Amino acid sequence: MRFTSLIVELVRARPRLIFWVAVLFQAALWFILPVLLYASPPGDLATVLAFGREYQLGTDLGPPLAFWLADIAFRLAGGHMFGVYLLSQICFAVTLWAVFTLGRAIVGGQQAVLAALLTATITAFSFPAVEFGPAVLACPLWALVLLHAWRVIGQRQHAAWFALSIEIGLLFLTTPVAIVLVLLLAAFALATAQGRRTLRSLNPLFEALVIGMLALPYLVWLLRSGTRLPLPVWGDPLMMLEGFGTLLAHLALGLAGIAILVVANWKGFDRKAKAEDAPVIFRPPVEPLARQFVCTFALAPALVLSLVSAWLGRDHVLGGEGVVLLMVGPAVVVAAGDLIHLRRQEVLRTIWLLAILAPVLLVLGTTFIQPWIGNAEVRTLLPASTMGRFFGDNYRLRTNAPLQAVAGDPQLAALVGIGAPTRPRVFFDAAPERTPWLTADKFAETGGLVVWRATDTVGAPPPELAARFPGLVPEVPRVFTPLVSGRQDALRIGWGVVRPKGMAQGGK
C-alpha cells in the first residue's frame, strides 16, 4: 500500500514527473518491441515508405506530409525501420503532452495527469501507433490544434493564433478529414458567445492565409490530378445504420481500458467504505465553456466521422481512432467532478498496467504463439531484409546494374523496396495510375524485378504478370523462412528479371 500511496502523493506534488515517467515508459516499450520482434514493418508501413520515397505532392492515399516524414526518418536511420518506429513514438509523446498541457489549463496539473494516463490506455496509442502514417501523424497535430484553439477561444491568447494556423495547415497536409475537424472547431466557435467574440478580429483572416499557403501545393495537385472526392454509398439506410453501429462498437472496444478503470473506481462496489478514506485529487471548478469544449470534442469527432465513414461504406473510422477518441480521457476527468476519489488504489494501478501491457502480450502472442497454432501468415515475421538483399544481389549478377524498380505482388514488392540496399522504386503495375513516378515504358527501359507468390517449383509467372511484362525472364522460385516458422508455410516467391533495353537488345 505504501508504493501506491507514494504514487498518489507524487500525482499531487509532482504531476509533471508522473506524466513523463508514464509517457516515456510506454514510448520506450513500443519503440523496443518492433525493433526486436518485427522482421518486416507492420500494416501498410512498407507501402507508406514506397510512396514517401517519391516525394509527390499528393497520391490516391491522400496528402503527402506523413509519407515525406516517414521517408526522412527512414533515411536518417540509415535505411533501418527503427527511425520510423521512433518517429511514431515521438508523435505519441507529443500527443499526450498536448493533452496534458490542455488539461492543466482546464482542470489543473493533478487531474491533467489522470486525463493523460487514461488517454494512454486507448488501444490506438499502443501497437497501431507503430504503423506510422496519416492516422498516426494526425494525432499530435489534432491535439495541438485543440490546445491552441482553447488558448485562443478560452484564454484569449492572441499569440496562439499563429501556432494554430500552422498546425491546421499541417493537418490539411496530413489527412483529408482535416476539413471535417476544422468545421467542427469552427462550429464550436460560432455556437459560443466567447467563440464569436474571438472571431471578430483580423486574426481569422491571417490564419486562413497561412493555412492556404501551407495547403496550397496539395490543393493544386488535387485540381491538376482530377481526383474526385469519395462518393457516398446510397444503399439501404438500415445497412448504413448497422455500419455506423459497428464503427461505434469498435471505438467503444478501444476505450475498454478507460471503462474498466471508471467502473473499478465506482463507489457502489464498496458502500461501507467512507469517502474520506480514499485519497482525493482536487481541482479548481471548471468553467462552463471549458466543460463544453472538452465534451464537444470528446463526442463530436467520433460521432460525425463514424457517420461519414458508414455513409461512404468504409469499414474503419476515417482519420483514425486516435484522433476521434483523443479527448475522451479529459472528458471523463471533467465529468468526475471537482474531487476525484481514488478508491482501491492497488486495483486501479493493476488495471492501468494491464491496459498498457495487454497489447504487448497480443504482439508477443502473435509473434511466438500464433505461428504454432495456425498456418495464417504473420506479416511482421517475413524477412524483408533477407529478401531485399537476395533479389538486389541476384538482379545485379544478371544485369550488372543496380536494382532500380520492383513490381508484381504489391506486398512483396513493397518489402523488397525497403529491404534492398539500393532502395528500388515500387511500381504498382496493376494500378499504374497510382505510381505516376514510374510508367510501364519507363520500367521496361530501365529494367527491374517482378515478384509474385509462387504455388509450385516451376516458377512460371501468373498470366496477368506475363502479359504486363512481355520481357520478363522467370527464375527458379526462392523460398524464405519466416522469423518464427512454426506451422506456417515457407514463403515461396516467384521472380523474374526485366532486363534494361540495351541489355535486352544486345545483352550477354
What does this structure look like?
Helices cover 60% and strands 6% of the residues. With 508 residues, the chain is α/β, with parallel strands linked by helices. The protein folds into 2 domains: 291 residues, no CATH class; 128 residues, no CATH class. Helix 19 packs across helix 20. The protein is globular and about 75 Å long. The chain starts with a helix and ends with a helix. The C terminus is likely disordered.
What are the key terms here?
508 residues, alpha/beta, 2 domains, six-stranded mixed β-sheet, two-stranded antiparallel ribbon, 8 strands
Largest sheet: 6 strands, mixed
Strand percentage lies at 5-15%
Which term fits the overall shape?
globular
Number of helices: 23
| Structural Rg | 26 Å
Low-confidence stretches: 504-508
How far apart the termini lie comes to 78 Å
Arithmetic mean pLDDT = 90
Q: How many strands appear in the DSSP assignment?
A: 8
Portion of residues within helices = 55-70%
What is the count of distinct domains?
2
Structural class, by secondary structure, is: alpha/beta
